[in-house]
Amino acid sequence: MTDLTRDALGWSPFYMSQLELEELETLTPARIATVHRDRVVGFSEIGTLELTLDPGITTAAVGVGDWVLCAPDQHRLIRVLDRQTELTRGTEYHTGEKQLIAANLNTLFITSSCNNDFNPARLERYLALAHDAMITPVIVLTKADQSDDPDAYIDQARELGRDLEVIAMDAKNDDVPALLAPWCGKGQTVALAGSSGVGKTTLANALTGGSELTQGIREDDARGRHTTTGRSLHRLPTGGWLIDTPGMRGLGVADVAVGIAATFEEISELEDGCKFRDCKHESEPGCAVQAAIKAGDIDPERLKRFQKLVREDAQATETIAQAHARSRKFGKVVKAAMKKKGR
Q1: I want to staple 252 with a disulfide (CB 3.0 to 4.6 A). Which of 87, 90, 190, 213 is the partner?
Q2: Could you tell me the residue range of the domain that residue 287 belongs to?
Q3: 215 & 118 share domain
Q4: Helix (H) and strand (E) counts for the chain?
Q5: Are residues 122 and 168 in the same domain?
C-alpha cells in the first residue's frame, strides 16, 4: 500500500501532539495491521512495513489499529502512541486484567443473526464494552432474509438502548456497503464483533470486496463454524478501515461500570431516586427501579441482566491483591469453624 496518506490511515492531531520534534524528523508513523508472535506489520505512507520490537516492547502491548513510531530503515518499532479509544474485554479468570481486542476504533458493528443466535444478554455485553470505550455501537442483524419475522428481532434489538442504530440485512446482498457506508468514510475505523457463525466474514468480504472462505451453518443450533482466527486491518473502498475479529466464546467485563450504566440508561437514571445509596434494586424499601418495574416502565428481565453485569464487573475489577486477601480471610473463617466444630 504505497498510495496512502496519514489522514487516509486515520491520523489526527491527537497522535501528532504526542510526537517530539526529534521524532518528527527521524521516525515514521505507521498503523498496525497484524500482530504476530515476534513481529508486527504496519501500513505507512512509504508502504507496508514488517517490524521487530525494541527491547521493552512486547507484542502483548501492541494491538491491531495502534499507531506506532518506527525506524523503517532498521525495520524496528520504537514506540506505541497513546490510543484514542481501545476495545477490551475482561479475562477469563476475573483478575481485573483486560485483553485488548482492537485499538483506535470509531464504530463497533455488533453482529447477531435473526435466528436462535440472537441473545440480548450477549449484545448488552458488547454494548457495555463499546459505550465504556466511547466507541459508537451499531447492531447489525444478519440472515434477515431467512427469518419469517425479522421485525421482531429488530424491535428487540432497539429496546437495548436509546437512539441505538439497528440494521437488518442479508449479508450476501450487494447493498451491504451502502447500508454501512455512514460509518465507513475516509479515515474512519470500524470493527466487526460477535459470536462465530453470524456472518462476520461474509460482511467483511462485502465491505472490502474480499473473498475469504466462509463455512456452513449447523442446522441444530444455527451457529456457524469458526472462520476468522486472528485480528487484521483491512482497507475499505469507501476510504475507511475494518478490523475483523474472531468469534469470542467468552466476553467478560472488567472495570466498565460507566459502559454498563450507559447501556442500561433507563435503570441507571433512576438509581439516584432510590432511598438507599447502595440499593441493589431487589427488595429494599423506596427503590425507584422496582417502582418503575411495577409501573411497567422497565422490563424485569432487563434488570436481572443489569444486576448480573454489575456483579460480574465489580468482582472482575478487584485487584489480585484484594482477591487474595478475600481468599485468605475466607480460609481463616473456615479454619476457625472447623476448629470450633472439632471441640
Answers
A1: 90
A2: 266-332
A3: yes
A4: 12, 13
A5: yes
As for how many domains the chain has, the answer is 3
Per-residue confidence band for 333, with pLDDT thresholds at 50, 70 and 90: low
> How far apart, in whole angstroms, are the C-alpha atoms of residue 234 and residue 149?
33
Considering the domain architecture, whether residues 122 and 231 belong to the same structural domain is answered as yes
Query: Does 126 share its domain with 60?
Result: no
Q: Which of 14-23, 220-229, 312-321 has the highest mean pLDDT?
A: 14-23
Q: Please state, in angstroms and rounded to a whole number, the distance separating the CA atoms of residues 53 and 219.
A: 45
Query: 79: which DSSP letter?
Result: E
Q: What does pTM read for this prediction?
A: 0.84
Residue 223's nearest CA partner among 244, 200, 190 is: 200
127 plus 95 within the same structural domain: yes
> What φ, ψ does residue 316 adopt, rounded to 5°?
-70, -25
For the beta carbon of residue 275, count every other beta carbon within 10 angstroms: 10
Q: What is the CATH number of the domain that holds 275?
A: 1.10.40
Q: What is the pLDDT of residues 297-329, one digit of tens each?
A: 999 999 999 999 999 988 887 754 465 566 666
In order of 12, 41, 191, 312, the CA distances from 36 in angstroms are: 26, 8, 19, 31
